């Protein structure tokens, strides 16, 4: 193999930040088209139910679209139909253009359902599909006469009808056509997208190529764990594709600092232009693509983020829902914030300096961003 290009930690950070579009203020423009463009560039945007501040999917988009409106995502999902919901490493918004890469997985779920809805009766699904075909899209609130059952998995529902809806969703019979908060509306996937004909499912090789391309676009520097998150290694097929691209000079091997892990990048990506002007400030969601891969975050930024919502209160160091604060190319603070919607204000539960972060250099910049962030939290 060609000798890897040795990047310093700051150089590697700039490559990743450029790929994430966090080194410029409005890289995708405004409106529903910006929301579609951002999700297509990132590959997926994670959905999460925690609502201490704005939910993760809106927060992630706001970090890259300064004038982002929640209605823009609703439009992209329900009107423009340019994004849909499915499982990546978690439930996420995914570009509709990428749907063929999920069709084979959907087919597999029909015969090997996930554990938390495995006991859903296929006959009940057929009945539910007939009802939706006749009466139109429905949510769990539209289902009557549900007798609660014991949960056999933490993510399972006590409502049998919800398990059936999940079965239809993961197997590709149903699509989430809209949301009201976290209440999902389910529609027949063919009717939602105006099929037939259905798109053709991608081949295993095409799926491998897609995952590599998605990571190269949104990460700049990739490794087995970063492409396969939460898995740690390339598949044998991906490893061959990487090897071929290195041999044909479409990719170059790279090391980051003293870490021996081999990363790969497009040759033009390893020298991003320097950012001019004052540093950009981002108060990031713990589910942001820059934060969610903890090992990668620690290697590139020297910051070890712990999601303390799952830590007993007495053992928390920073707070229940700590948000990393990025100033330029450094994580300089961690803040536990809470939005008091009734009082119309955002509360700072705690503020901790991280790494090179300090009040003299960073406090004013962060306070300015906090004002903008609060307006987003309390807006429509």
List the helices and strands and how they pair.
Elements: E1 5-7, H1 9-20, H2 31-42, E2 45-46, H3 56-62, H4 70-79, E3 83-87, E4 91-95, H5 100-111, H6 122-135, E5 138-139, H7 160-170, E6 174-180, E7 183-188, H8 189-193, H9 204-219, H10 224-228, H11 236-247, E8 252-256, E9 259-265, E10 281-283, H12 294-301, E11 322-327, E12 330-340, E13 345-353, H13 359-378
Parallel strand pairs: 1-8
Antiparallel strand pairs: 2-4, 3-4, 5-7, 6-7, 8-9, 10-11, 11-12, 12-13
Helix pairs in contact: 1-9, 2-4, 5-7, 6-7, 9-11
In terms of per-residue confidence, which ranges show pLDDT below 50 for 5 or more consecutive residues? none
Could you describe the largest sheet, including whether it forms a barrel? 4 strands, antiparallel
* Average of per-residue pLDDT values: 92
- The rounded distance between the terminal residues' Cα atoms is 53 Å
Q: Name the beta content range.
A: 15-25%
Strand segment tally: 13
What structural class do helix, strand and pairing data support?
alpha+beta
- Report the helical percentage: 25-40%
The coarse silhouette is globular
* Element order: H for helix, E for strand: EHHEHHEEHHEHEEHHHHEEEHEEEH
Strand order of the largest sheet: 10-11-12-13
- Rg, rounded, reads 22 Å
Put simply, the count of helices is 13
Protein model, in words:
With 380 residues, the chain is an alpha+beta fold. It contains 13 helices and 13 strands. The strands form 4 sheets. A 4-stranded antiparallel β-sheet has the order 10-11-12-13, with helices on one face. A 3-stranded mixed β-sheet has the order 1-8-9. A hairpin with a 3-residue loop joins strand 3 and strand 4. It starts with a strand and ends with a helix.
């Amino acid at each position: 193999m060609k000798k890897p290009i040795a990047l310093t930690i700051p150089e590697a950070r700039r490559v990743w930040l450029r790929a994430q579009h966090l080194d410029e203020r409005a890289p995708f423009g405004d409106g529903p088209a910006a929301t579609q463009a951002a999700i297509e560039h990132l590959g997926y945007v994670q959905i999460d139910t925690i609502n201490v501040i704005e939910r993760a999917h809106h927060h992630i988009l706001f970090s890259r679209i300064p004038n982002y409106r929640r209605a823009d995502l609703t439009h992209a999902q329900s009107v423009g139909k340019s994004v849909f919901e499915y499982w990546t490493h978690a439930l996420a918004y995914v570009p509709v253009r990428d749907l063929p890469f999920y069709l084979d997985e959907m087919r597999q779920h029909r015969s090997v359902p996930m554990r938390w809805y495995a006991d859903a009766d296929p006959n009940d699904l057929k009945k539910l599909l007939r009802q939706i075909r006749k009466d139109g899209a429905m949510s769990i609130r539209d289902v009557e006469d549900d007798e609660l059952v014991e949960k056999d998995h933490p993510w399972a529902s006590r409502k049998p009808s919800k398990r059936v809806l999940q079965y239809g969703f993961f197997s590709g019979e149903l699509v989430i056509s809209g949301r009201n908060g976290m209440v999902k509306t389910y529609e027949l996937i063919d009717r939602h997208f105006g099929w037939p004909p259905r798109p053709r499912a991608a081949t295993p090789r095409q799926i491998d190529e897609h995952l590599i391309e998605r990571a190269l676009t949104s990460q700049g520097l990739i490794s087995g764990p970063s492409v396969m998150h939460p898995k740690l290694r390339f598949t044998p097929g991906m490893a061959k594709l990487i090897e071929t691209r290195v041999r044909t000079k479409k990719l170059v091997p790279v090391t980051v600092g003293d870490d021996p892990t081999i990363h790969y990048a497009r040759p033009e990506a390893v020298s991003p232009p320097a950012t001019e002007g004052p540093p950009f400030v981002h108060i990031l969601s713990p589910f942001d693509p820059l934060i969610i891969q903890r090992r990668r975050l620690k290697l590139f930024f020297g910051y070890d983020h712990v999601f303390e919502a799952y830590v007993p209160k007495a053992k928390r160091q920073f707070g229940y829902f700590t948000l990393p604060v990025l100033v330029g190319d450094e994580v300089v603070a961690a803040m536990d914030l809470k939005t008091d919607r009734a009082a119309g204000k955002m509360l700072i539960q705690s503020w901790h300096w991280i790494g090179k972060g300090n009040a003299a250099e960073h406090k004013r910049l962060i306070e300015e961003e906090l004002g903008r962030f609060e307006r987003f939290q309390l807006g429509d």
